[in-house]
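Support reply, case 0932

Customer input (verbatim):
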Amino acid sequence: RHQTTKPGTLACTYLIFMALERFITDFWRADRIPVHALPLFSFHQYVALIIGICAIIFLMYSKNNFNADIQ
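Our regenerated output:
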């Protein structure tokens, strides 16, 4: 049986796990760059959040559009 994967699935999966890894490990870094307006997370954690959210949105968007193209 031939199973077709969505275009961009591997790239989005990599970006999601890379962002998650960066977000978690940045808590232990000694050279964190805090954001003074929002001191809860560091600058790199906010970047990782943005990358991860964009990858999840693209993955969901491509899932909906790719299924519509097949049918």
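We compared this against your earlier run and they match. Two observations from our side: The longest helix spans residues 43-70. The chain is about 65% helix and 0% strand. Please reopen the case if you see a mismatch on your end.
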